[in-house]
Specification:
Two copies of one chain form a homodimer. With 365 residues, the first copy, chain A, is of the alpha+beta class. Chain A has two domains: 204 residues, CV3147-like fold (3-Layer(aba) Sandwich); 135 residues, CV3147-like (Beta Barrel). Chain A is built from twelve helices and 17 strands. In chain A, the strands form two sheets. In chain A, strands 1, 2, 3, 4, 5, 6, 7, 8, 9 and 10 form a ten-stranded mixed beta sheet that branches. In chain A, helix 1 runs antiparallel to helix 2. Chain A is globular, with a radius of gyration of 19 Å. The mean pLDDT of chain A is 93. Strand 7 of chain A pairs antiparallel with strand 7 of chain B, so a sheet runs across the interface.
Chain lengths: 365, 365
C-alpha cells in the first residue's frame, strides 16, 4: 500500500503559522492566504503534496506567489482569482498546462496562497521551496543558482491587469516586476520560474512544506500547553534564542516597493541592560548587539516571536512596546556557498558586516 | 494603370522634417529614426504606402513607436532591432502576423521608426496616424475614442528585455508602460493598438504621412531658397505665426518619465516688448501671452521653429538664446469633440485654461 501526503483544511492553521515563522518577519500575514486556501479546499478538496523526486522529469512545475507589500493585500480586498489568473496567463505564454504548483518562498502568505491555487487548479503541490525562508527579491531563490530563468513570468492584479515579462536575467525580472508591483498599488500575484521536474530535482530546497507544517504544529501545541515554543523549536530545529526584550523604536520607511528599516529592542529578564538592533528589508536581515557586533546575518534566519505566545511577528506589524523573543536559525547550506552569498549575503543589502554562520557568531553565548 | 505611393530613401529627409514639425516639440529628434529608416530601405527596398481604405477589413494593422524620453534614444545606442522585437513579440502574443505598420503619432522619431520597421519586415505602412501631431501619453490617440484597446501591447529594450501588457483600459496601459519605460532606462520600443483594417478605417486620422512629407518638402525648399518657411506653411496649412522672439528662460524638469516645464520667449521685431510663455509636457501644450491670456491650447498644435532656418525645435533641445517663431495650427476635428477634449484637453494636463479653438483665440490678431 502506497501512502500519500495531503494538505487538508485542518492543516492550514499549522501551515500558516509555520510559514509565518520561516518568513523571518516577511512573507506576509497569513490571514488572507489561509482564508483563500481553506475556501479553495472546501470547494475543491484537499491538496496532494508531492515529493520532488516523484515528479516526472518533463513535468511543468510553476511557483505562484504574492509580490509586494503584504499589508497591501489586506487593504486591496483581493478578488481571489488574481493568483489563478497569473497561473493561467503564464500557461498561455508557455502554451502548456502546469502539472504541479510550488512555493517560491516560506512565509505567511506565500506558503498558503500556492495551496489555494493548487486546490483551485486541482493540481498537486511540491514539498519544497526556493528559499527555505523568505527573501525580499525575486532573484533570491535557489533556482537562480542553477541558471533557471524567472521568465517567462506573469503578473496579475485585482483589477484584471495582466503583464508578461521576458527579461534577460533574473535581476532584471526583479527590477521590472518591482515597478509594476508598485503601479499595481503595492502588491500583485505572480507565476514565474516555470521549470521541469528534472530542473526542480536539481534546484529546489526539499521538504519545506513538511517542515512548515511541523513548525506550525510545535508552535500550536506549545501554545496550547501555555509554553513559549522557543525552547522546543530551538531543540528540534537546531536554532537558538538570541535575545528577549521590548521593542522601543522602529524606524520604518517604504522605499522602491520595500519596507526598509531598523528596530531597537531593549533587554528584559536575563538580557536586562543589553540591546539588540534588527535591520530589515521586508525580512529581518541583520541582528546586532549594543556594541554593533552581528549576532545573526542574512542568509541565516532571524525570527521574531511574541514573548508570551510564541506567535511569529512580521516587520510590518511589529511596533513600540511589543515584548519579543529573537530567534535564530541556520539557513540552508546552499545559501552559504559563494554564489548563494552573492545573491543574499549582507553586502547585497548594503550592510557592512561580513557573513559568518550564526553558529560561529554565537559560540560564546 | 494603377499608381502606388512609396517611401524611398530620398523621401526620408522630408518625412523626418515634417514629422518633427507636427511633433509640436515632442516626438523626438528625427536623427536616429531617419538613419534607421534609410538603412532599412537600403537593405530591403522602399516602403509601400497604403491608403487606409485599401486595407482589407480583416487585415492586422500594428502601430510601432518609441516611448519615453527621445533624448535617451540618442544616448542608449539602440541595437536597431528593438522595434522589430516589439513587433515580433506582439505578433507572438496575437498568434498572427501583421499585414501593415502604422504610426501612432507624428514626430521626428515616431514618423521615421515605423518606416524602418515596415522596410525591415517588408510590410506596407498606412497613410495615417493616431494623433495628427504628438501627445505625451499612450491613451491619447483617436483609437481610444473608438474603443480600440491599446493591449495586447509589447515593449522591448536594447538589452533584450521584452514585456507584454494586457490591461483593463488604455489609461492603465499608459501607467504600466510608463514605469516600465523608466525602468528600461528612459525609453523603449513598443507595438500596441493592434487593430483590423475595418477598425482602422473608422478610427485613424487619414493622410498623415502624405501631409508630413508635404510639410517636409515645403520646409526643405523654402530653406533652400533662404526663406523662412513659416509664411508658406501658414498659407498651405491654415496655420498662423503666433510670435517671434528669443528664448530667455527654460524651466525644465523630468518627472514620472516626462519632460515637463515652461519656456519664456521675449519678443523681437514687431513683437518687441511682448512675451510668450510655452508650457510643455514632452510636447508644447499651452501658449500664453504676457497677460496670461491663452494664444493656443492643446489639442491645437504649437510648433517652435528656428527664426532663421525654420527648422523645428523640440522641447528637449530648446535653450536660452534660441531665436524662434511660435507657429500654431488647428488640430484634427476629432480632438475638438467632448471625448477628444477629455483625453487631451488642457484640464487633463492640469492647466486652468478652458479650451478654445486657436482660430477663435487669435481673431483679434
Amino acid at each position: 500500500m502506497e501512502t500519500i501526503k495531503i494538505i487538508t483544511r485542518d492543516d492550514m492553521a499549522d501551515v500558516a503559522l509555520g510559514g509565518a515563522f520561516l518568513g523571518t518577519g516577511g512573507g506576509g500575514d497569513p490571514y488572507i492566504g489561509r482564508l483563500m486556501a481553506e475556501q479553495a479546499i472546501d470547494a475543491n478538496g484537499s491538496v496532494q503534496v508531492l515529493n520532488v523526486d516523484d515528479l516526472a522529469d518533463d513535468a511543468l512545475v510553476v511557483p505562484v506567489a504574492m509580490m509586494g507589500a503584504p499589508t497591501v493585500m489586506l487593504e486591496k480586498l483581493p478578488r481571489g482569482d488574481e493568483a489563478i489568473n497569473a497561473l493561467r496567463s503564464l500557461e498561455a505564454v508557455l502554451g502548456k498546462k502546469a502539472d504541479a504548483i510550488f512555493c517560491i518562498e516560506a512565509g505567511g502568505l506565500n506558503s498558503t496562497i500556492p495551496i489555494a491555487v493548487a486546490a483551485t487548479a486541482r493540481l498537486p503541490i511540491v514539498d519544497g521551496d526556493g528559499m527555505g525562508r523568505a527573501f525580499p527579491e525575486l532573484q533570491m531563490v535557489s533556482m537562480t543558482m542553477f541558471d533557471i530563468h524567472a521568465c517567462p513570468m506573469a503578473m496579475a492584479d485585482e483589477k484584471g491587469n495582466a503583464i508578461a515579462l521576458n527579461t534577460v536575467d533574473n535581476l532584471s525580472t526583479e527590477k521590472f516586476a518591482r515597478v509594476i508591483t508598485v503601479e499595481m498599488g503595492g502588491a500583485g500575484l505572480i507565476a514565474l520560474y516555470p521549470m521541469t521536474g528534472a530542473q526542480a530535482k536539481q534546484a529546489i530546497l526539499r521538504g519545506s512544506l513538511s517542515l512548515i507544517a511541523n513548525i506550525g504544529r510545535i508552535i500550536g501545541s506549545e501554545q496550547a500547553a501555555n509554553r513559549n515554543p522557543a525552547d522546543k523549536l530551538a531543540a528540534d530545529l537546531k536554532g537558538m534564542r538570541l535575545f528577549e526584550g521590548r521593542v522601543t523604536d522602529v524606524d520604518r520607511r517604504t522605499e522602491g516597493g520595500f519596507a526598509r528599516g531598523r528596530a531597537t529592542i531593549e533587554g528584559l529578564e536575563s538580557y536586562q541592560g543589553q540591546k539588540m538592533f534588527l535591520n530589515f528589508q521586508n525580512e529581518f536581515l541583520l541582528a546586532e548587539d549594543e556594541h554593533g557586533r552581528p549576532r545573526a546575518i542574512t542568509p541565516d534566519l532571524i525570527c521574531l516571536l511574541d514573548l508570551e505566545t510564541g506567535q511569529p511577528i512580521t516587520t510590518e506589524t511589529m511596533g513600540y512596546g511589543f515584548r519579543v523573543i529573537v530567534f535564530g536559525l541556520p539557513c540552508d547550506p546552499k545559501w552559504r556557498t559563494k554564489h548563494g552569498l552573492e545573491l543574499v549575503g549582507p553586502s547585497y543589502f548594503g550592510y557592512e558586516a561580513q557573513y559568518k554562520p550564526i553558529e560561529i557568531l554565537n559560540l560564546q553565548n
